[in-house]
């Protein structure tokens, strides 16, 4: 598998399949999994027995590491980030980690600064400001 | 998706979907990572009867949430175990090992009830249940899980939250 060798998320090399796929932030996954879990709770008495260990662990993880809990805030985050011509994967890393400075954002997602992309420091700064505003008013 | 003939009838579709969920959710592959949850069925094709067994195979197209860590990706994880070789952290179903070579040089291992890595001035401590931000530098897949190698030796990586001091 030659593709596997070259995988490098910092240059956005994550395989064609995943570039095309929709990428979800932790907080979005939390909403989906919780919804599914609630559905299971209604149909069976012992929902914890129904779900796989992977499901359980993933749910715990995304709950612990979600920056935004409120569904409206989650929607806003995606809306704001999607204005900045980011790849799905970049959008999610930014939404998950919520960097505070431009420098930090570039360290987390180096691909936003690669050539041919229209992201100067000002644009990134504006994006981060927008993000922190959502957090404040959540 | 293979289905036994006893499930045929009015509830064919439901049986197919519930079998799919049981079989696929929680599995793991190198290409797609962990299948966490099936979120929707796109379509179910025509069944094909297997000669000699009576089993019928249906092509099912479905959508699901998968979890796949990438090399070079930065993510947050909870520390589960610390020893002198380094520490283990967990991001959902994925295990991540950070070797002591990939922990900043100014952090020293301290053994005891709560083994940990601490900076010389004691300001930063990595121990069980800490939350750390790390970068994945390698992934390995076996049949049931994904093991990653991570590093915290880079700018903006390291402990983000220590529940014992908060």
Automatic annotation (TrEMBL), chain A:
SUPFAM superfamilies in UniProt: HRDC-like
Gene3D superfamilies from the UniProt entry: 1.20.1250.40
BP-aspect Gene Ontology terms: DNA-templated transcription initiation
Domain RNA polymerase Rpb4/RPC9 core as annotated: residue spans: 16-138
Gene Ontology MF: a single term: nucleotide binding
Matches recorded under InterPro entries: HRDC-like_sf, RNA_pol_Rpb4/RPC9_core, Rpb4-like, Rpb4/RPC9, Rpb4/RPC9_sf
Pfam families: RNA_pol_Rpb4
Gene Ontology, cellular component aspect: nucleus; RNA polymerase complex
Compartments reported by the entry: Nucleus
Superkingdom, taxonomy of origin: Eukaryota
Keywords: Nucleus
Predominant place of localization: nucleus
Assigned protein family: Belongs to the eukaryotic RPB4 RNA polymerase subunit family.
Record protein name field: RNA polymerase II, Rpb4
Source organism (scientific name): Corchorus capsularis (Jute)
Automatic annotation (TrEMBL), chain B:
Gene3D superfamilies assigned to the protein according to its UniProt record, in alphabetical order: Nucleic acid-binding proteins, RNA polymerase Rpb7-like, N-terminal domain
A molecular function GO annotation: translation initiation factor binding
Compartment(s): Nucleus
Known function: DNA-dependent RNA polymerase which catalyzes the transcription of DNA into RNA using the four ribonucleoside triphosphates as substrates.
Protein's name in the database: DNA-directed RNA polymerase subunit
InterPro entries with a match to the protein in the record: NA-bd_OB-fold, RNA_pol_Rpb7-like_N_sf, Rpb7-like, Rpb7-like_N, S1_domain
Annotated S1 motif domain residues: 69-146
Gene Ontology annotations of biological process type: positive regulation of nuclear-transcribed mRNA poly(A) tail shortening; positive regulation of translational initiation; transcription initiation at RNA polymerase II promoter
GO cellular component: P-body; RNA polymerase II, core complex
The family this protein is said to belong to: Belongs to the eukaryotic RPB7/RPC8 RNA polymerase subunit family.
Top-level lineage group: Eukaryota
Keywords, in A-Z order: DNA-directed RNA polymerase, Nucleus, Transcription
UniProt key word Transport: no
């Amino acid at each position: 598998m030659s593709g596997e060798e070259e995988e490098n998320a910092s240059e956005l090399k994550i395989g064609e399949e995943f570039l095309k796929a929709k990428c979800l932030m932790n907080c979005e996954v939390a909403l989906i999994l919780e919804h599914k879990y609630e559905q299971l709770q209604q149909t069976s008495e012992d929902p914890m027995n129904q779900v796989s260990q992977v499901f359980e662990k993933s749910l715990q993880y995304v709950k612990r590491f979600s920056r935004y809990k409120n569904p409206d805030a989650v929607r806003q985050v995606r809306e704001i980030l999607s204005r900045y011509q980011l790849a799905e994967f970049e959008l999610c890393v930014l939404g998950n980690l919520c960097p505070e400075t431009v420098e930090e954002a570039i360290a987390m997602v180096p691909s936003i600064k690669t050539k041919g992309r229209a992201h100067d420091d000002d644009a990134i700064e504006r994006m981060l400001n927008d993000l922190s505003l959502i957090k404040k008013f959540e | 998706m293979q289905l036994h003939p006893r499930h045929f009838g009015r509830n064919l579709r439901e049986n197919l979907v519930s079998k799919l969920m049981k079989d696929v959710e929680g599995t793991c592959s190198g290409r797609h990572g962990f299948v966490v949850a099936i979120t929707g069925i796109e379509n179910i094709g025509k069944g094909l009867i297997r000669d000699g067994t009576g089993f019928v195979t249906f092509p099912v197209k479905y959508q699901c949430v998968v979890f796949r860590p990438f090399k070079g990706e930065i993510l947050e994880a909870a520390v589960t175990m610390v020893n002198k070789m380094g520490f283990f952290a967990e991001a959902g179903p994925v295990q991540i090992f950070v070797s002591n070579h990939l922990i900043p040089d100014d952090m020293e291992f301290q053994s005891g009830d709560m083994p940990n890595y601490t900076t010389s001035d004691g300001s930063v401590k990595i121990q069980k249940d800490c939350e750390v931000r790390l970068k994945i530098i390698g992934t390995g897949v076996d049949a049931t899980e994904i093991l990653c190698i991570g590093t915290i030796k880079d700018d903006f990586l390291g402990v983000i939250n220590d529940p014992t001091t908060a």
